[in-house]
Amino acid sequence: MELNELEKIRIEKIRKLKELGIESYPTRANNNSTIKKACDEFLKTEQHECPDPCVFTLAGRMRSLRVMGKLAFTHIEDSTGKIQLFLRVNELGDKLQIFKDFFDLGDFIEAHGTMIRTKTGEVSLQVDDFRMLAKAITALPAAKEEIVDGQTVRYTGLTDPEIRYRQRYADLVVNPDVKKIFYTRTKLVNSLREFLNQNDFLEVETPILQPIYGGAAAKPFTTHHNQLHQDLFLRISFELYLKRLLVGGLDRVYEIGRDFRNEGVSYKHNPEFTQLEFYCAYFDYLKVMEFTEKMIRFAAEKTLGTTILTYNGIEFDLSKPWNRINMREGILEKTGIDIANYPDRNTLASIMKEKGMQFKPEMPRGKLIDFLVSEYLEPTFLQPTFLYDYPWEISPLAKRKPDDPTTTERFEGFIAGMELCNAFTELNDPIDQELRFLEMGRAYASDDDENNPIDEDYLQAMRYGMPPCGGFGMGIDRLTMLFTNSSTIREVLLFPHLRDRDNDSTEGETEA
User: Fold this and answer.
1) CATH top-level class for 5-139?
2) Which residues fall within 8 angstroms of residue 30, CB to CB, at 6 or more apart?
3) Domain limits, the chain
4) Tens digits of per-residue pLDDT, 151-209?
5) More confident residue, 113 or 500
6) Is 434 marked as a binding-site residue?
7) N or C: which end of the chain has fewer CB within 10 A?
8) Is 412 marked as binding a ligand?
């Protein structure tokens, strides 16, 4: 990689420091406190008028620099906060010149000294010794702060989303609000774990590399195990493995982990994403609905301290019961089509054409219904909403309703027009399950993403007896979007998948 002039200057500084016997990348740091702990300790001594000085060795990245003759000021930052270093010739002698000549913004510095409050009232470390911890060769994007109407306004040179996502390391340094997103994400995941653990669920881990993929309608990524001479797939769901555990007597299980789906990307899709799935013996989809409301309410309170959230200008209150809409009734209301009157693919496609709807001609009936939901219902679900009772054609793992074998006990949850979760009363009849798998194979073309292979081992597990149960899946990334008011999934992924720099094609990228 070709270096720019500034980088060449900084590399020259590294060489000169080495000539002086100063290591630019020492092996160890000797800091004995975080910045926040040091400041908190100093404030305590001030309050108690303690005569003993607060002496610390602190470390961090240099974020500002002012040199004024025999004085120098720099702010350093670690993950807990920021503090000013006060350097002057009185304490440092000739060593101050080394700081002035060789230290730059972005460098990591270790400083020893006494905590003071300057004449301007700022808590600072009066430095009596310092050293380089890591020299930054590339300068961080330019950033500055100013006070506007009593508020700190930050300007940064890193605003291009493409560069921010590719260079997340720089984005995190110069855009503090980005860090907040990922702290929030971690708190959110911890709160979900806490809730499930409190409700006697067992967290487990299931295979990521699977000989047969299943549990969702998606195309997998394929890989190969050289030693075993075996093609394997990155999982698209945890479902079939978690339900095997129900057969084994683990009545309440959950997993939080990564799934991988070889499909298009959009503001709410990424090829790899984090999912929460849980399965509970003796639950049905109605109990799962109630449990979902409680879980997401708990997560909001723990993570944000409130149940009232705003996303893209839409305010919603998670303390209130979610709306519940029957799919058949919802489609009828929005389109005038009663799907029960069109029991096969051709009759449903015909009425949809009459109404001027544009859809792929090869879609089977289940996908046509899914099209109606995504086009005419989803965008209207601004407040938390459960859409329930899905056709069996697009719910191969859900139990049929006792009074209507064409419909399954399945729901999906939506907030702000975005699908958030999916749940069933799980099918536990192995004979019906096998027939469903076979019917799906006949309904869809061999190269269709939804035509998953039959998992014979899963059917074998079911034959041992599976308790009646409810299952649930939710995208952690999308819930994080809602909790942080982030308009795209890329904002809540530390390293989102991006196309190659040299490939300008946007093929496969959608906004759906």
Assistant:
1) mainly beta
2) 57, 110
3) 5-139, 178-322+383-492
4) 555 455 688 888 899 999 999 998 889 999 999 999 999 999 999 999 999 999 999 99
5) 113
6) no
7) N
8) yes
